[in-house]
TrEMBL record:
It comes from Acetobacter cerevisiae. CDD domains: CcmH_N. Possible subunit of a heme lyase. This is Cytochrome c-type biogenesis protein. Pfam families: CcmH. Residues 138-158 are annotated as: Disordered. Keywords: Cytochrome c-type biogenesis, Heme, Iron, Membrane, Metal-binding, Signal, Transmembrane, Transmembrane helix. The chain crosses the membrane at residues 110-131. Residues 1-25 form the signal peptide. Residues 15-155 form the CcmH/CycL/Ccl2/NrfF N-terminal domain. Belongs to the CcmH/CycL/Ccl2/NrfF family.
Length: 158
């Protein structure tokens, strides 16, 4: 019983020490736009943009400093009255297509997604032909010429 109390006190102490760190993960409500429609637009755009630090989260879901800066930039562009397309184009021009969580279909993305299948097909084809070549019946050697027969007879006499 005494051990349980000590463990509980230790757990509570650790939780209290970590509490200030957890507060840092909360985003600043001051970065939100006063107009709810504009804020909703900014959140929609932000949910389509990749956090360049986390790389698997949108800038709306990330608490990284760069994501916070990108959210601010998106909200500035929304407040200026730019369209979603203009804001997305600005981000892509600045950071490349990598900033999009779902990049547009292009030859590059088609090659990227098809490379594993192409590599598998190439490997299977190579293995098939190597197996066929190895298991192919060896060709019969050509018959000996008269000169070769005479030489063989000389060699076997000794």
């Amino acid at each position: 019983m005494m051990m349980l109390r000590r463990l509980s006190a230790l757990f509570l102490g650790c939780a209290l020490l970590l509490a200030p760190v957890l507060v840092l993960a909360v985003d600043d409500p001051a970065e939100m736009l006063p107009n709810p429609q504009e804020e909703a637009r900014a959140e929609t755009i932000g949910s389509q943009l990749r956090c360049l630090v986390c790389q698997n989260e949108s800038i709306e879901d990330s608490s990284a400093g760069l994501a916070r800066d990108l959210r601010r930039v998106v909200r500035e562009h929304v407040a200026k009255g730019e369209s979603n397309r203009q804001i997305m184009d600005w981000m892509v021009n600045r950071y490349g297509n990598f900033i999009r969580l779902s990049p547009p279909l292009s030859i590059g993305t088609l090659l990227l997604w098809s490379m594993p299948v192409l590599a598998l097909l190439l490997g299977l084809t190579t293995a098939f032909f190597a197996y066929r070549r190895r298991n192919a019946a060896p060709a019969a050697p050509p018959p000996l010429t008269a000169e070769e027969k005479a030489r063989l007879a000389d060699l076997t006499k000794d």
